[in-house]
Amino acid sequence: PDLATLLLPCSDSAGQSLDGVIRPAVQWIRRARDGGGRVLVHCVMGASRSAAVALACVSAFAGVSVDEALELVRLARPTAAPNQGFLLQLRSEPGLPALLGPEPFPVSPQDQEYASRTLAQARQRRQRITAAKFMSQKSSQLMDNNAHDNRSRDK
Questions:
Q1: How far is CA 146 from the centre of its chain?
Q2: Active-site residue list
Q3: pTM score, two decimals?
Q4: How far apart (Å, rounded) are the C-alpha atoms in residues 106 and 28?
Q5: CB 124, CB 79: distance < 8 Å
Q6: Per-residue pLDDT tens for 12-51?
Q7: Which of 31, 41, 58, 84 could bridge 69 with an S-S bond, Cβ 3.0-4.6 Å?
């Protein structure tokens, strides 16, 4: 299979500007996807720079907020942790739209629907886990209280 690479110089520091990084990366990924290709986005640690690019793509392609995009990226890569400088640039006004440039990327209805469904499922799963932890804690407290009551009665 054909292999193409795009290298974008970018340091993992809070002061690093994403201007000149996000737009070319998103354009390149869009062309690859439109052509039926696949894309591997990576950096040295696979946590900050690549995550910033991935969440910019998810946000642009699916029309979701930067925070929702980060939530989606973390479902696939739990260690995704763009540095605070990157997040500030993506979240602030004008933020991501300015980094993407004057011509907006078309939002894919399929990507938008997938993102919506995946976020809803993840949030439901998180609610069930939270409820289960709560019930487990309450159950433990009840057992502790019962054991204490039994010890008090036995005296």
A1: 43
A2: 43
A3: 0.77
A4: 14
A5: no
A6: 999 999 999 999 999 999 999 889 999 999 999 989 999 9
A7: 58
